[in-house]
Amino acid sequence: MPRSQNKVASHRRRKRVLKQAKGYWGARSKVLTIAKHHVDKGMQFAYRDRKTKKRTFRQLWIARINAAARLEGTTYSRLIAALNAKEVDINRKILADLAVSNPQAFAEVVKFALA
């Protein structure tokens, strides 16, 4: 009995890996064995960095809020504590956006929180 090979599935699997490796440099996008390793590593980085992105953006928002708060004569920690004491539920993303795009509105929020 002849040996059976599932050419359709094998070809499809190779094609999928090479499609994922599109844009990689040199053999990383052309040679299946090399492409497999780099696609796997790329997936690991993508998984890890989806988590890291959240951390990085929060750091950015906090830095922006702190800079704007200092222009208003307070600090980030005092502002957040005052907002929590007044039970104002406004997240850091929105506060940072206000600080950058609409400084007058941010100043009013600070004035309300510290009053």
What would you say this structure looks like, in words?
By secondary structure, the protein is an all-alpha fold. The chain has a single domain, classed as Orthogonal Bundle (c-terminal domain of poly(a) binding protein), CATH 1.10.1900. The chain is rod-shaped, with a radius of gyration of 26 Å. The mean pLDDT is 95.
Secondary structure elements and pairings:
Blueprint: H1 7-20, H2 32-71, H3 76-85, H4 92-101, H5 103-114
Helix pairs in contact: 1-2, 2-4, 4-5
Main features:
single chain, 115 residues, mainly alpha, c-terminal domain of poly(a) binding protein, 0% strand, rod-shaped
Number of domains: 1
Radius of gyration: 26 Å
Find the count of extended strands (DSSP E, 2+ residues): 0
Quaternary organisation: single chain
- The number of helices is 5
Task: Tell me the fraction of residues in β-strands, as a range.
Answer: under 5%
End-to-end C-alpha gap: 88 Å
Q: Could you say which structural class the secondary elements and strand pairing correspond to?
A: mainly alpha
- CATH topology descriptor: c-terminal domain of poly(a) binding protein
Q: Name the CATH architecture.
A: Orthogonal Bundle
In sequence order, what are the helices and strands, one letter per element?
Answer: HHHHH
Can you tell me the CATH class?
A: Mainly Alpha
Tell me roughly what share of residues is in helical segments. Answer: over 70%
Uncertain ranges? none
Average pLDDT for all residues:
95
Largest sheet: none
